[in-house]
Amino acid sequence: MTRPFTAARARNEGFAALLASHPQVDLVQFLDGDCELIAGWIETAVRFLQDHPDVAAVCGRRRERWPDRSIYNRLCDIEWNTPSGEARAFGGDVLIRAEALRVAGGYREDLIAGEEPELCVRLRAANWKVWRIDRDMTWHDAAMLRWSQWWRRSVRAGHAFAEGAALHGRPPERHFVTETRRALLWGAVLPLLLLALTLAWPPAAWLWLVYPLQWARVALKLRRARQEVPALQAAFFLQGRFAEAIGALRFWWGRLSSHRSALIEYK
After folding, report:
1. Is the pTM of this model over 0.85?
2. What stretch of H or E contains 139?
3. Cα–Cα distance measured from residue 236 to residue 234, given in angstroms and rounded to the nearest whole number
4. Mean pLDDT by 10 residues, the chain (267 residues)
5. Phi/psi of residue 36, nearest 5 degrees
6. Of 240, 221, 241, 198, which Cα lies nearest the Cα of 75?
């Protein structure tokens, strides 16, 4: 433990231990500590990889075990429901080819978050594909019952966005560039600009209406996409920009001051 601990490091240590005891292994199922595999997933995922030799990793639908316990759990359950087909990234639960992971160099151990999408960038660079299939994969327990937990999780996401953009923000990937710019615009640049304008010229206060207008725009977009609770999702998206901006600025401050960020945990 003299080395900083991250989830990425834990996965690499587990993978190394697995290969040491079973060097012939072809496929590895990673599973987050707050998740449980759903029966039948392994068999389905193995068949998919056998039928698709160009796919390095396959994931499925993660479901919240108790989505009705809090709005935050419900938002997580909605978040996990991404489209099936070729994917840009997988999360902590994934069935992956051992050789692809080994050649890619494993997970990047110095990342405190966002290590899975970063690995996917390197897998694509090695001409591998990542796929999500329409099959239930795991039960997850977000265990978020307080607004402060959701806020810390959003701060962590902002940190991951900024660090991912710093690593792979150049074309063709442009990894997390859009997410970082969006967070900084709505969560830092725009509110500071509006505050300065309002203090210098009070009638400019009406410009703050840009936020409820943005909420309405996002809510309408989510409603057209047939999301479950579009108005509520839009409200949390907008709040989340402030937390993500803090996370992004925290990353850049740490990078400029040579101070490595500690883990940001929400439970």
Report:
1. yes
2. strand 129-140
3. 5
4. 86 97 97 96 98 98 97 96 96 98 96 97 97 98 97 98 98 97 98 98 97 98 94 97 98 91 89
5. -140, 130
6. 240
- Burial class from Cβ neighbours inside 10 Å (0-12, 13-18, 19+) for residue 43 reads exposed
Question: How far are the Cα atoms of 15, 38, 97, 99 from residue 24, in angstroms, in the given order?
Answer: 13, 25, 12, 10
* Residues sharing a CB contact under 8 Å with residue 11, sequence separation 6 or more, in sequence order: 30, 106, 107, 115
Query: Any idea which residue has 């039948």 for tokens?
Result: 40
- Determine if the peptide bond prior to 23 is cis (ω within 30°): no
**Of the candidates 111, 137, 132, the residue with the CA atom closest to the CA atom of residue 122:** 111
**Spatial CA neighbour of 65 closest among 139, 138, 150, 145:** 139
Alpha-carbon separation of residue 228 from 35, 57, 65, 120 (angstroms) = 23, 29, 17, 29
As a residue count, the chain comes to 267
- Helix (H) / strand (E) element for 160: namely helix 147-168
d(CA 115, CA 89): 10
Domains annotated for the chain, with CATH where assigned, are 7-143 (3.90.550.10), 146-267 (no CATH)
Cα(139)–Cα(76) distance, integer angstroms = 12
Nearest to 184 by CA among 105, 246, 104, 267: 246
Please tell me the distance from the alpha carbon of residue 95 to that of residue 84, in angstroms, as a whole number.
15
